[in-house]
Write a structure and sequence with these properties.
The protein is mainly α. It is built from four helices and no strands.
Length: 99
Amino acid sequence: MTNELNATNPARVRAPVIDETLASAIAAHLRGAPPPDLRLAVGGFVARAKRTLTPPQDVISSLKANVQREAQPHMAASEFPRLVELVVGWGIEEYYRET
């Protein structure tokens, strides 16, 4: 029998992972740090997630949660979707990059 507490239930809700390294890079990006610094942080986050066999949809969800938590309160609403698109795009590229 499976229920919401059973780890074998494929429909269970997974909480997004908040990563302090990625959060710091997002904050630095908002203060003017160059985009390659943020891209490196996204790559590191994705690499750690892949090592733990995190599925891609959970990685994307976590990337979005990190951007929302760190950036949304501190930037114009018109700029926020572009940052999400950038971070998620880099995350997808990194997730599917052949090693």
